[in-house]
Here is the input.
Amino acid sequence: MMTVPLLLATSTLALVYAFVTHDFSVRYVAENSSLDLPQVYTWVALYAGNAGSLLFIATVYSILTAVAVVALSRRLPYTAPYATSVMALVMAFFLGVIVFLANPLERLAIAPPDGQGINPLLIHFGMFIHPPMQMMGLISVAIPFAIGIGALLAGRGGRDEWVDLGRTWGMVSWLILTVGLLLGSWWAYTILGWGGYWAWDPVENSALMPWLAMTAFVHSIMVQKRRGMFRMWNIILVSVAFVLAEMGMFINRGGPVPSVHSFAQSTMGWVFLGFMAFTLIAALAAFMWRIDTLKSRERLDSMLSRESAFLTQNVLFLAVASSPSGAPSTPSSPRRLPMRYHGRQAVLRPGKRPYPPRRSFSSWE
Here is the structure.
């Protein structure tokens, strides 16, 4: 159970060591560090690019999974095998992407004398706290999702025994996402290149959407605990939250709409889109298979009851979440951008010519 977290943690530390020692024979280090980069920022360069951020996410998720498996085996022994299988499937996806598509420890045949460096916007104190919190928040949604789907697959979704543990992990995920959003809004206000305000931006919305769904979930699941209601609805909510979290990772890794906040662009975003589609189909299939176990004998007392208010609140949260979810997934014309670029983005300044990227090996048009 601890083997995967230990191996991933070792790999992460090895990559950090490569950054600290300026080992430019490692491709990822050469692309995201340089000799003139302040030493303290060599640590945060770990997740400044695509492969390193995936390794960080996988490491955090493996630790969360190890803790969740221990809690499941003690409190939900009948659900534990199914929930663990769901978590293992998500883990296998990330490991597969890291090994076959984005190896952060890939070596170069010839080491360059210096590296490319990171985007100047990332040399900021916010880099130490906002990206880790946002990445942790997005991947942590997988834990309550696995618990809910695990209970559903075990045929125990209607017994309400998974509610306490599911809500606990839901609150953990919601809290991390909340902190990540607050830090992101603070960072956006301090960077002139981002317009000096919290914009309607794909990357900014990528954390807002699952946060709204998780907010609805942690409220709605209390009704299930106290009244045995909303069983179907809660499974739907936690599934939607995880799909939206996957959408956030897709947007951060080559989504169809460019973002001034995205510094890990790659073509593998479509791999995440495929996994998101697989998750949606699999969750729907499990829901339809076990829908009979989710039926409740309780009914809403009236349209003015507390439970009706909770349901109305949930619908409003999802309606708000659906509003930004369309914008980041709809391609826009590149003519609306003040420049064209390949690879790393330039620093945007409203109404002015953009700064070119630092030490960029990309071609500029």
Observations:
- Residues 3-110+117-328 form one domain.
- The chain has one domain: 3-110+117-328.
